[in-house]
Amino acid sequence: MNRLELRKMSLEFRRLSSNLLNSTDDTADINLSRFLKFINGNELILGFIKDKISGIDYDFKKCYAIGCSGWADFNPPEDEACHIKAQYDYLLFINNEDKVNVRGQAMRYCWSSKKLNDNIQSFLDMAFKPLIDCINDYLSMEMIVCDEEAKAMCGNTYIQNIETVNGSASQQNIGVINTYNTTNDTSSMSTLIDKLLASLPEIQGVDSEEIENVKDDLEMIQEQLKSDVPKKNRIGKALAGIKKFAGDFSMKLAVTLASGAVTGTDWNMLLQQVEDFIK
Q1: How far apart are CA 248 and CA 235, in angstroms?
Q2: How many CA atoms lie within 13 A of 177 on its CB side?
Q3: Which residues constitute the domain of residue 29?
Q4: Tens of pLDDT along 119-131?
Q5: Measured between alpha carbons, how far is 52 from 135 in angstroms, rounded to an integer?
Q6: At what angle do helices 232-248 and 264-278 cross, to 10 degrees?
Q7: Residue 82: which of 110, 52, 112, 126 has the closest Cα?
Q8: Which one, 139, 146, 180, 238, has least CB within 10 Å?
Q9: What is the pLDDT of residues 182-229, one digit of tens each?
Q10: Model-level pTM?
Q11: Are residues 10 and 145 in the same domain?
């Protein structure tokens, strides 16, 4: 799963979890059902939960005092895996039992507010926010790992094996880095960026969001090159985005550019010229 897919998944999870935690009496049950359906239908998140609770023998009724007389007490277990299992099993219990709903469970606890919706939100926060936070942390970590793997694969290689290019080449552990004689001529770099920007609509098989992101990076560099006092930190940040785009979609670019006016040499040349400019 690439970073874009992880971002989309994370955003969808955050939206559903936010809806759940901000539920009212009218929406609590459907929001809980949608939240649980998303978890159970997502292989990555469900796999994370299953791995965490594998071999754990813990009854969620101990955590939420199900079946007690009088006001219920909330007794989360010290062990995180037991707590995750308790929260997941409680979600299943509320969602699947015919005579159980969020309002009924929320009103088992003593709350300071006299407003029903406040009490429902307090209950949902108490009961399930630790699980939500845990999943959010996991997805964030997966995106970090994805970034590091992409960085390792890309390394100093910008676009590999796109047409035949001229110039001296140095062999490294992955790919070939082509070295060109470049200058810090901002005019030529700006012209080259115009050429690359014009080619973006022709690129096939790349998500439109990724195209927009690299377009923003190219335009950011071009804007800074035209400035009397270019901010090299902004150029460097945009350069990193272009490098990642070139590394992630090198094969897509190879197919698209094979018969076009833009070549892999153009991308490599821009990247090296901008790096020289920063240095």
Answers
A1: 20
A2: 13
A3: 3-154
A4: 999 999 999 999 9
A5: 11
A6: 150
A7: 52
A8: 180
A9: 445 788 888 888 888 888 887 877 888 888 888 888 988 988 888 878
A10: 0.56
A11: yes
